[in-house]
Automatic annotation (TrEMBL):
Signal peptide interval: 1-21
Gene of this entry: LOC107592569
Broad class of where this protein is predominantly found: secreted
GO biological process terms held by the UniProt record: immune system process
InterPro entries on file: Interferon-induced_GILT (IPR004911), SAP_A (IPR003119)
Keywords: Disulfide bond, Glycoprotein, Immunity, Lysosome, Oxidoreductase, Redox-active center, Secreted, Signal
Enzyme Commission number, as recorded: 1.8.-.-
Name under which the protein is recorded: Gamma-interferon-inducible lysosomal thiol reductase
Domain Saposin A-type: 22-62
GO cellular component: extracellular region; lysosome
Role noted for this protein: Lysosomal thiol reductase that can reduce protein disulfide bonds. Facilitates the complete unfolding of proteins destined for lysosomal degradation. Plays an important role in antigen processing.
Length: 250
C-alpha cells in the first residue's frame, strides 16, 4: 500500500459521510456515473467523493507538494528530543513519500559575534552537539535524519554521535564531522541556523518550534505533539484534494 493510500484509509475513510449512513438509496445526482469523478463538486453532490479519492490514489500520483515540516530545536532539550524521537521520526518513516523534514539545531541559543562563538541554553555541550548535528546534516544529506534520531534517542547525545554516524551514514568519516566542528564550516552552518531561527514570524517563544509549509499555528503544534501522523495526512489530503479538483475541473 503506498503512502497516499495509507493516509486515505487513516484519515478519509475514518469519516463516514452522512449520505452513506442513510438507510434509503442515494438520490440521483443528475450526472451519469462516467462523470462522477470529473470534479470535486460533482463527486460531493453524488456522494462518491471518497470513492473518487480512492480511485485517484490508485492512479499515478499527481504533482502534489509534500508537507514540509521544519523543526527548530536544541540538541539537549528534553522536549525537543521527545518530539523528534517519538513523533517526527516515526511519522517520517511511515510517510516520507508525502512529507519533507528540515532540522534547524539552534533553538534558544545566542550568537556572540564579538566573541565569534555561541551561547546555549544547556551550556557548552549543547553548543557542540548542535554544531555536530548541523555538520551531519550538511555532510550526510539524506542519511542525516536517521543519524540524528539515533543520537537524540540515546542516553548520551554526544557519545553516540560517532557510532550513529558509522551505522547510518558510513560513507561519511567521523574526521569529516570533527573537521567541520573545528573549522569555519561549522561556525558558518550555526550562523545560518541562527539567522533562520531569528527570522521566524511569529518569533519562536519556546522549543521545539514547528512550522508546516513555512507557517506556524499553536493549533498545529498542539496536534503535532501527540498526533503528528494524523496531522500530516490531513494537511496532505487538503493539498491532494486541491490538485484533484483542478485536475478534473480542466
Amino acid at each position: 500500500m503506498n503512502t497516499l493510500m495509507l493516509c486515505v484509509f487513516y484519515v478519509i475513510f475514518s469519516r463516514v459521510y452522512e449520505i452513506q449512513c442513510k438507510s434509503h438509496p442515494k438520490p440521483s445526482c443528475g450526472y451519469p456515473p462516467s462523470q462522477w469523478c470529473r470534479s470535486l463538486e460533482i463527486a460531493i453532490e453524488c456522494g462518491v467523493w471518497k470513492q473518487c479519492m480512492e480511485l485517484n490514489a490508485t492512479r499515478p500520483d499527481p504533482v502534489v507538494p509534500p508537507v514540509e515540516i521544519t523543526l527548530y530545536y536544541e540538541s539537549l532539550c528534553p522536549g525537543c528530543r521527545a518530539f523528534l524521537t517519538e513523533q517526527l521520526f516515526p511519522t517520517w518513516t511511515l510517510l516520507k513519500d508525502i512529507m519533507e523534514v528540515n532540522l534547524v539545531p539552534f533553538g534558544n541559543a545566542k550568537e556572540l559575534p564579538e566573541e565569534n562563538s555561541f551561547s546555549c541554553q544547556h551550556g557548552e555541550p549543547e553548543c557542540y552537539a548542535n554544531m555536530v548535528e548541523a555538520c551531519v546534516l550538511y555532510a550526510a544529506n539524506h542519511s542525516a535524519f536517521p543519524v540524528i534520531y539515533c543520537m537524540e534517542s540515546s542516553a548520551d547525545v554526544l557519545k553516540s554521535a560517532k557510532p550513529c554516524l558509522q551505522l547510518y551514514a558510513p560513507f561519511v568519516k567521523w574526521q569529516t564531522i570533527e573537521s567541520c566542528t573545528r573549522g569555519e564550516l561549522g561556525h558558518s552552518l550555526m550562523h545560518q541556523n541562527a539567522v533562520k531561527t531569528q527570522a521566524l514570524k511569529p518569533a519562536h517563544i519556546h522549543v521545539p518550534w514547528i512550522t508546516f509549509n513555512g507557517e506556524y499555528t499553536s493549533e498545529w503544534e498542539d496536534k503535532a505533539m501527540s498526533t503528528l501522523f494524523t496531522l500530516v495526512c490531513s494537511l496532505h489530503k487538503v493539498q491532494y484534494a486541491h490538485v484533484f479538483f483542478h485536475m478534473y475541473h480542466l
